[in-house]
Design goal:
By secondary structure, this protein is mainly beta. It has two helices and nine strands; from the N terminus they run E-E-E-E-H-E-E-H-E-E-E.
Length: 159
């Protein structure tokens, strides 16, 4: 099985071209975060064809988040200096757009319903700050969304 699933951000604007036979092809590089403490990423070449290539070229740009699935392939060529080169790339079979960033940050009532307060704290000092940091949500959610409180069971748990 040859299946690749990636999520990340476009490292640069996609390049859309036409082949000599008239097929549309789009190449783009996706930066996929490595699971390490350092903020590093792998930069992977992706190639989309035909209608998918047109969609990528029209709707994605540098910094766009997307989820790509496809297959891994390699191709060989000779560069201008006569050196043999190998390219490994993902041939895109499916692509999902990431979430749109809202024009404005929603306030607590818009996100959680009335009666809820969100306070942000500086992760270093623990002091409240305006508009950033670690959120702390207080208030009652149960009545606003049709949820009911579930009481703690009495006695032994069945597991």
């Amino acid at each position: 099985m040859n299946k690749v699933l990636l999520s990340g951000y476009l490292a640069k604007d996609p390049e859309v071209k036409q082949t000599p036979t008239g097929k549309t092809v789009c190449q783009f590089t996706i930066a996929v975060a490595k699971p390490t403490r350092e903020k590093t990423a792998d930069f992977l070449l992706c190639t989309a064809w035909q209608k998918l290539a047109e969609i990528v070229g029209q709707y994605l740009k540098k910094g766009s988040y997307c989820i790509v699935s496809g297959r891994l392939t390699s191709r060989h060529y000779e560069d201008k200096n006569g050196q043999h080169r190998t390219i490994v790339e993902v041939v895109v079979e499916d692509l999902d757009f990431g979430p749109k960033v809202p024009a404005k940050k929603p306030d607590a009532a818009e996100r959680f319903g009335p009666g809820v307060t969100v306070t942000y704290y500086d992760s270093q000092t623990g002091q409240p700050v305006e508009g950033g940091g670690q959120p702390s949500v207080t208030g009652s959610f149960a009545g606003d969304y049709g949820f009911t409180e579930v009481p703690e069971p009495d006695g032994d748990l069945p597991f």
